């Protein structure tokens, strides 16, 4: 297995830990809930337009994947999902095979059953969402960012919504925020602490357009957010040592989309995706780390020579102090990857 490295002798790779044809998909969601990864929908192959309607549960401790027998799961790709109340998996928006939708479907993981939640009175939903992001800002509140529109019309700017979820009433409600962003699709979002003695939080959007600049889609002052990301002390320490071997830059990747992003302490870890800056060989296998420990933050780029690690439409999930890579299309942009990998860092 080829290692990607930096001049300082540090290296990284994605090490396969499981393989199952049930996991082979791209543009799916992959969400950790109670120590399980829930994979919903996605596309089974490049060129497919009909998304899958199945749900697969992967146990990272045992390395086993099973298809959930629950009926009525949403047919979706290019959607996002978030856990609510430690019990429900809420799937938001996406492509259903014929149109972009903004509805919410919820999997009750205790009953193993899908529920169709309804819009609450006063909800102001987007016209349609795909390749957007949903970020938890509290247990029952998500911040949704992306370009809304139907199949024929797309706005020239991005919208930001607060999506409130009520598991007791089985309802959801959208409220459009006053801020607009650049028109982005296939971007990622990271909720990161701001540096300083009284740190607040910022929701930053990366990629999904030609710009290399991150954009703020929400700000919260000290103590306003109750959301605590999972602790990953060992991985956080490894990332700190890795960036200490690299050369920081103020400029991030330009024109990257359909990449993955996970927050590990003060770091946003971006991987793979498709670049808009080249006409050929567009699928990427680069690791980028956005380091917010100092102001202004720095980007660190760790390229990779292993063509087999190229991914687009994949997901990364943080669990048990390790970062997992799940699914996505490989270097041809068409063949889905059945592996689950763990990020290994060598310093």
From TrEMBL:
Q: GO MF terms on file?
A: cyclin binding
Q: Which UniProt key words apply to this protein?
A: Kelch repeat, Repeat
Q: How does it assemble?
A: Interacts with CCNA1.
Name recorded for this polypeptide: Kelch domain-containing protein 9
Native source organism of the sequence = Acinonyx jubatus
Query: What gene does the UniProt entry assign to this protein?
Result: KLHDC9
